[in-house]
What does this fold into?
Amino acid sequence: MPAYAHALRYGELMARYVTTIPSSLTPQEAFAYMADLHNFAKWDKGVVKVVQVEGSGAGLGTIFDVTVKGFRNSTSTLRYTTTE
It folds into this structure.
């Protein structure tokens, strides 16, 4: 078994990004903005569209289909489910 197999089972090799961005928003407002998938296309230029499949607004149990740009004019649709 490869040395990284344990990490793969527990998601430790998942990409993680940490940065600091100046903002006039309060921490609560910034979190609410980033947590609402309707805003994805405003800050991620790779997002083509966001469609809410279940729920209303952000919150537990909501499901969104997020379509992103791929290679050679292709797109992929990713399903996001809020679980906590």
Summary: The chain has a mean pLDDT of 85. The radius of gyration is 16 Å.
